[in-house]
Write a structure and sequence with these properties.
216 residues, alpha/beta, Rossmann fold, Arc Repressor Mutant, subunit A, 2 domains, six-stranded parallel sheet, Response regulator transcription factor
């Protein structure tokens, strides 16, 4: 099995490469960012991609977005996201890509047996699906709670919106600038995936989502 690894930590990248070699897995490229991952896959056509989620330059979801992009072009490309986190943005898209086949999402801290891990990689490369139960739990929890994507501060801002406070009033209550409140509101509207329309209507939809969550 020929594998491309994307991991920004040199020690983890080299350690994973050495570990896979023990199980007759050939690491044909080991790179440190999402752009290099895209190039390596294009050049080497691997049997499997293993990618971290958070990588340079932003250390947010670059690896996951690259994996989704790769699966758009090659839906059959086996991909395993190996991360310390459940990154909710794009995780659903990755797991749904390619009809849910040849895909995996594993948490680094929960890999307790390297032989089992190697077997999981082979299962994904063979068309199977391997997802850590904790990943499933968190994604299902987010799906039930539309506000689950929001940060605590964004929830506070949305709560004040629902109470009818203006941006200026919310800024005074939270000891923020009006620009800071406006930025949080923009994040709320984006994270709730509200349809693009005028901002007033989107604010109303956001408040309705908040009120529904409080009544559940």
């Amino acid at each position: 099995m020929r594998v491309v690894i994307a991991e920004d930590s040199v020690l983890l990248r080299e350690g994973l490469s050495a570990m896979l070699a023990r199980f007759q897995v050939e690491v044909i490229a080991a790179v440190g960012d999402a752009s290099a991952l895209m190039s390596a896959v294009s050049e080497h056509r691997p049997d499997l991609v293993i990618t971290d989620v958070r990588m340079p330059p932003g250390f947010t979801d670059e690896g996951l977005r690259a994996a989704v992009a790769l699966r758009v072009v090659q839906p059959e490309l086996p991909v395993v996201a190996l991360s310390q986190y459940v990154q909710h943005s794009y995780a659903g898209e990755l797991l749904a890509s390619g009809s849910g086949r040849s895909i995996g999402y594993l948490l680094k801290d929960r890999v307790g047996d390297v032989a089992e891990f190697a077997d999981q990689l082979r299962r994904v490369a063979g068309g199977g699906t391997v997802v850590d139960p904790e990943v499933v739990r968190q994604l299902m929890q987010r799906r039930r709670d539309p506000l689950g994507k929001l940060s605590p501060r964004e929830r506070e801002v949305l709560s004040l919106m629902a109470q009818g406070h203006s941006n200026a009033a919310a800024a005074r209550i939270l000891s923020l600038t009006e620009a800071g409140v406006a930025k949080h509101i923009g994040n709320v509207l984006t994270k709730l995936d509200l349809p693009i329309s005028d901002d007033t209507n989107r604010r109303v939809l956001a408040v309705l989502a908040y009120l529904r969550s409080q009544s559940d």
